Amino acid sequence: MILTGPEIAAAAQDGRLTISPFEPEQVNPNSYNVRLGPRLLTYTAPVIDAHRANPTTAVEIGEAGYVLQPGELYLGHTLEQVGSDTFVPLLFGRSSVGRLGLFVEITAPIGDIGFHGQWTLMLSPIRPLRVYAGMKIGQIMFFVSSGDIDLYAGKYQAAEGPQPSRYWRDAEPVEAVAP
């Protein structure tokens, strides 16, 4: 069961979910619009290695915006901190942003019950695209869970800003393979 817009607003008011800052005009019929935060990360190594920490570079999105380039993966973040100990959040790109050729969060839209923080967004443009901090970039929906709840306590808890992959922390050791 998905929460309706009025129920999202009521749950944000009574604490069953957290959206901070909360703006009533960002409530949709069954979702809440989230905005792009001011910082982006890109990986700098020519090959990203799943079994190691990868170097990144940070970019602040200025007042004039920032042009995303095709073939590059950008890690952005939501301006809002979002979470719930009750509901299952799912984040998707907005259709109006998709119509500009920007893929947002297509591989990992589901959040864990108990996660609270800014969401890292995987941004991948089809064509060069200028984006702006504060633009509505995605929408988050909340679903009612069934069964016992085991709250998230993972490596991305309380995230602020974009978070690079920490997959390597849990990866099984493997023998290195030459490129």
Structure description:
There is one protein chain. It is built from 3 helices and 11 strands; from the N terminus they run H-E-E-E-E-E-E-E-H-E-E-E-E-H. It has a single domain (5-45, 55-164), classed as Deoxyuridine triphosphatase (dUTPase) (Deoxyuridine 5'-Triphosphate Nucleotidohydrolase, Chain A, Distorted Sandwich), CATH 2.70.40. The radius of gyration is 17 Å and the shape is globular. The model has no long low-confidence stretch (mean pLDDT 94). It is mainly β and 179 residues long. InterPro entries: dCTP_deaminase, dUTPase-like_sf, dUTPase_trimeric. One of its GO terms (molecular function) is dCTP deaminase activity. Keywords: Hydrolase, Nucleotide metabolism.
Poorly predicted runs: none
| Number of alpha- plus pi-helical segments | 3
> How many E-type strands?
11
Order of helices and strands: HEEEEEEEHEEEEH
Number of domains: 1
Class derived from helix and strand content: mainly beta
Strand content: 35-45%
The helical percent reads: 10-25%
CATH architecture: Distorted Sandwich
CATH superfamily: Deoxyuridine triphosphatase (dUTPase)
Largest sheet: 4 strands, antiparallel
What is the fold named in CATH at topology level?
Answer: Deoxyuridine 5'-Triphosphate Nucleotidohydrolase, Chain A
Quote the average pLDDT: 94
Task: Estimate the global geometry from the Cα principal axes.
Answer: globular
Trace the largest sheet across and list its strands.
1-6-9-8
The end-to-end span amounts to: 47 Å
Specify the CATH class: Mainly Beta
Radius of gyration, CA atoms, in whole angstroms: 17 Å
Subunit arrangement of the protein = single chain
